[in-house]
Amino acid sequence: MKSYPNTTLPCAVFGHNYIKTKSNKDHTLELSCNHCGIVVNTDAKGNFENISSPKLHIKTVIRELYLLKLQTVKAKLSS
Question: Helix, strand or coil for residue 35?
């Protein structure tokens, strides 16, 4: 029998409880599970596509770089 951590046990028994986290311009959605935090995307036809960890890592790094860029622009404008 496969053991599950406490956070993923409800997902293993009842299935994931997805909530919409973001809507994209190309009519796709980003959904994340309330319990375990798994993030999936929907394609144009409504099918689920898992976001692999390398893609997720790249996405977070790009977001951090964007936020740093915004901070430097604000700092330059305030000086």
Answer: coil
12-61 pLDDT tens trace: 777 888 889 888 888 888 888 888 878 888 888 888 887 766 666 788 88
Give the containing element (helix H, strand E) for 53. helix 53-78
Mean pLDDT across the chain:
80
51: which residues sit within 8 A by CB, 6+ positions away? 39, 40, 41, 59
Biggest CA pair distance of the chain: 62
- Dump strand ranges (E) for the chain: 18-23, 29-33, 39-42, 48-50
